[in-house]
């Protein structure tokens, strides 16, 4: 079960992810996280799991319906922070795509009220490959038109912050494009000893240190087609292990 919710302030965060240029300030960066306990899970037998994944999963961590509910709340938080400010959403493919689409659906829903509390948006898609460079982690960005970030309030949409090292390498690269502000929304944040301490501004769920799949998050391109977020088991790891790995 979800047992804790903590508010985190990003002021003074050494990641400098709460960076904003110019004087055009948004509200303070505070984000509440739904923390799932280490032993939190749902039985596979209680939910619908595609037959082709029989035997490859250990448990359901977050059912699809709960993901939808949490994304709606994140959309509300985003609306509260940005107000009528136009944002430029940048989806990090492929893992972030389900979260991205669900978030957009919620933001569009706010448009229907056509009052002062909705968030106009533009969007783009990028792919990011991170690799260990000579000094530290390097990133290669493909797709997307990065030049369009200049002067915009950019919100990166990610699937999971695991060690956080890729994000820490990616943000300075994007910052060079001159966005007015740059923030990160991640569906998941893993509690792991390997974390570099990076914190996203909007986080759906804080999860235990387990390898998760589903809701567009993959293990070697498999499991993206699953509605629920699940933990893969040893049989799954072996069945879908890449031939090149
Ligand atoms: N699952 C899938 N991809 C990932 C994970 C995970 O738990 N962590 C980092 N990339
Ligand atoms: Mg990702």
UniProtKB/TrEMBL annotation:
Cofactor(s) of this protein: Mg(2+)
Reactions catalysed according to its record: IMP + diphosphate = hypoxanthine + 5-phospho-alpha-D-ribose 1-diphosphate
Gene3D superfamilies (alphabetical): 3.40.50.2020
Chief location: cytoplasm
Any single GO BP term: purine ribonucleoside salvage
Keywords: Cytoplasm, Glycosyltransferase, Magnesium, Metal-binding, Nucleotide-binding, Purine salvage, Transferase
Cellular component annotations (GO), alphabetically ordered: cytosol
Any Pfam family matching the protein: Pribosyltran
Keyword field contains Transcription regulation: no
EC number, UniProt record: 2.4.2.8
Pathways involved: Purine metabolism; IMP biosynthesis via salvage pathway; IMP from hypoxanthine: step 1/1
Domain Phosphoribosyltransferase: 67-219
Molecular function terms from GO: hypoxanthine phosphoribosyltransferase activity; magnesium ion binding; nucleotide binding
Subcellular location: Cytoplasm
Keyword Transport attached: no
Family under the similarity heading: Belongs to the purine/pyrimidine phosphoribosyltransferase family.
PANTHER family: HYPOXANTHINE PHOSPHORIBOSYLTRANSFERASE, HYPOXANTHINE-GUANINE PHOSPHORIBOSYLTRANSFERASE
Full protein name: Hypoxanthine phosphoribosyltransferase
Organism of origin: Tribonema minus
């Amino acid at each position: 079960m979800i047992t804790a919710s903590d508010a985190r302030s990003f002021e003074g965060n050494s990641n400098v992810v709460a960076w904003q240029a110019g004087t055009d300030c948004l509200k303070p960066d505070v984000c509440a996280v739904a923390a799932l306990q280490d032993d939190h899970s749902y039985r596979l037998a209680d939910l619908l799991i595609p037959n082709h994944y029989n035997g490859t999963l250990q448990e359901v961590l977050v059912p699809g319906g709960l993901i939808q509910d949490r994304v709606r709340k994140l959309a509300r938080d985003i609306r509260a922070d940005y107000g009528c400010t136009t944002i430029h959403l940048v989806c990090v493919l492929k893992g972030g795509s389900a979260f991205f689409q669900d978030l957009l659906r919620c933001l569009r829903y706010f448009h229907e009220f056509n009052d002062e509390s909705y968030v106009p948006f533009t969007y783009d898609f990028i792919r990011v490959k991170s690799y260990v460079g000579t000094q530290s982690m390097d990133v290669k960005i493909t797709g997307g038109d990065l030049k369009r970030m200049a002067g915009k309030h950019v919100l990166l949409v990610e699937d999971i912050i695991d060690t956080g090292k890729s994000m820490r390498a990616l943000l300075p690269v994007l910052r060079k494009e001159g966005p007015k502000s740059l923030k990160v929304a991640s569906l998941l944040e893993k509690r792991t000893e390997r974390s570099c301490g990076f914190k996203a501004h909007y986080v759906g769920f804080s999860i235990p240190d387990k390898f998760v799949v589903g809701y567009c998050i993959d293990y070697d391109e498999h499991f993206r087609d699953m509605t629920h977020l699940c933990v893969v088991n040893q049989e799954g790891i072996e069945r879908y292990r890449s031939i090149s790995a």
